[in-house]
Design a protein that fits this description.
65 residues; 3-stranded antiparallel beta sheet; single chain; two-stranded antiparallel ribbon; mainly beta
Length: 65
C-alpha cells in the first residue's frame, strides 16, 4: 500500500487497511491506520479524480436509415 507520515509516531510508515477516497475538492487520498499505534493516517495523492462516465442519452445517437 502507500507510505505516509504518522504524527503520533513521528515517522514514515506503511499505511495499513488503506482505502482510496475522493475529497470534496475532487482530489484523491488514501485513508488508513498506522501499523504501530493504530492512529488514523491520511495521505493526499496527486491529480484530480476522474468523474464517472455519463450514460449516452437516447436522442443523441443518429438512427440508421
Amino acid at each position: 500500500m502507500a507510505e505516509g507520515y504518522c504524527v503520533k509516531c513521528k515517522a514514515k510508515k506503511e499505511i495499513t487497511d488503506g482505502v482510496e477516497e475522493v475529497m470534496k475538492n475532487g482530489r484523491k487520498a488514501i485513508k488508513g491506520r498506522c501499523p504501530t499505534c493504530a492512529t488514523v493516517m491520511f495521505k493526499i495523492l496527486g491529480g484530480k479524480a476522474t468523474p464517472p462516465a455519463a450514460p449516452a442519452s437516447p436522442g443523441s445517437a443518429t438512427p440508421a436509415a
